[in-house]
Structures are given as structure tokens and as C-alpha cells.
Amino acid sequence: MDETQLPDKLFFKIGEVAQIVGVRPHVLRYWESEFAALRPMKTRGAHRVYRRRDVELAMFVRRMLQDEGLTIAGAKKRLRAEQRDRVASAPDPEAAEQVSLRAELLAVRHELTDLLRALDAATSPTSTRPQKPMTATVTASIQSSVPVGGRGRG
Which domains does the chain have, with CATH numbers? Predict the structure, then answer.
């Protein structure tokens, strides 16, 4: 797995983590109350800051709950069985790879949005006549049925 695919930051805001993991921020806050290992640090202003391992654990929890269909109790049981129910446990390689893939897709989305803005600026007429700007929506997602384990193994 290529670690450079996640933004080169030590900490992530809850909105960034929610985007990378593919859930809404309130879901992450709920998971924090259910899974002891998912404990982001908090700033003086009580803002949550997630470390890379927190993002990887959140991706692992998402996969267990949404992709594998486990309940909260079943996911807790699996975390205990894999000894990942503590904060200092080792990261899941598959979850780390999924985090990196999502981060890469979000970066591509951001680049495409910037290119669209540049194209809009370059193609706008020089006349003072007001025109409606061009807009587009760029979306990206990873389907749960697509295998992601093929890169960097073997």
C-alpha cells in the first residue's frame, strides 16, 4: 500500500474523515460512543482531530457494519477477537488500503473541480454582458462489490 495517497497531514478534521470513510459526521460521533478504540483527540475548542490510525479503524468499522452486515455488538466482538479493541492496536491493512483509495479519489475530484473552474474562467467572454457560468458536479465512489485487494500484494 502506498502511504502517500492520504493527504500528508498528521491530523484530520471530522468532515474530512467522514468524506474519506464514506459516512456522515454524526455516524462517526456515534461510533466513538460505541467503540472504545475509536477515540479522536480533541482540541482546546473541543474539535475532534483524527490520526491516520483512527481513519483506518473507522474504515474497518464501516466495512464490518455496512459491507459485512454485522451489528454493533458483532463488530465489537470481532474487534475483541482480533485484539483491535484497544487504542494502540495494529491497523488493518485492507482498511488502510481502502482509506488510501478513497483519499486518492477525493483528490482527483478536487483536481477536476479546479480544472472546471479554470476552464470556466478561460472560456468566459471578455464582454461585459452577464452570462450564466457553466457548472458541473463531479462525484466518485467505491462500490462495495469491487475488490480492492489486488494492488501491492503477492
Answer: 3-122 (1.10.1660.10)
